[in-house]
Amino acid sequence: MNENSRSFHEKELRDGQIESVCAGCPSPYDKDNSVLQAFRGIPISELKNNGILRALTAEAIGWEPGAVSVEVLRAQEEWEAVDNIQTETGQASSDQPGQLISFSEALQHFQTVDLSSFKKRIQPTIRRTGLAALRHCLFGPPKLHQGLREERDLVLTIAQCGLDNQDPMHGRVLQTIYKKLTGSKFDCALYGAHWEDLGFQGANPATDLRGAGFLALLHLLYLVMDSKTLLMAQEIFRLSRHHIQQFPFCLMSVNITRITIQALREECLSRECNRQQKVIPVVNSFYAATFLRLAHVWRTQQKTIADSGFVLKDLEVLAKKSPRRLLKTLEIYLAGVAKGQASSLGTQKCYGPQAPHSKDLTFTGVCDLPPHSSTGTRLI
Length: 380
What we know:
By secondary structure, this protein is mainly alpha-helical. Helix content is 58%, strand content 0%. α10 (168-182) crosses α12 (213-225), α12 (213-225) crosses α14 and α14 runs parallel beside α17 (308-321). The termini are far apart.
């Protein structure tokens, strides 16, 4: 037998031995299939975490990696990133700008951060002297209960805080207000002309918060995130874009917050706060009720931007004198809205063409008018 023939028979023998051995043992592919059946439906991240894929390769088949190519390394990096991506998606951070924020969540932020430097600036009550002090003592509203003063001080402290666009929570408040008023599903820039469309005077809302601070934004947030007042907010916003009676919505709201702050400091809300044993809910409702009254006067009396300062000053006098009356009006309005009844803002139903916010409008706020008398108290 020549060398070639012997080599051929040896190869044939070896092949036959291999076949006979394989015939008596299960195929590694059958084992792989059984393993795959067992782990069908398990998430990819769990397969990775439990080392299943490694068992299906290195251990089941006995394969050991040799030289690793660039493609394999890249695939391995992508695989390592799978778990991180799923974790970040499942546990989204509450500080992401794209998420709406509720009033209670924003308030909780201020309740947990250190505001001591801002608290030093507040003046909880108006300082009166002489006959004004005597008259207030004899005929003025009751003092706020001791247990409610810390909550009152928190409200006034927030009014001392400015807008910080580097704070994710502040950005979320702005984004929420914008989305709720415009109906947009997308985030907007924190600076830009789109804020003028909402009724700020410029591209940066922070410049319009004088005298009200971040409390002005919290009030707007309350207005648009509370299901009972959202329709009211949208209705007033549409009125603010009337082609003749237009006014800067957000700037008007800031002035309403200023009136609210002053009413709180002058203890005009103390009786109602004492009755409800709460401060923040009373302050929020008073703000909404005052804004509702302004919208009613604005529409029914055909007011324009030229009347803004005088309307706000008269509104301030009424709000301080009869806060309970305003709150009752708000209750009636919200009850009617809940029942699907017509708007209580006025008899007019037609808003007319919608007008974009004009940069040429001259808005006069409550801080820009002289007091009615020498004994009047100017707003902060």
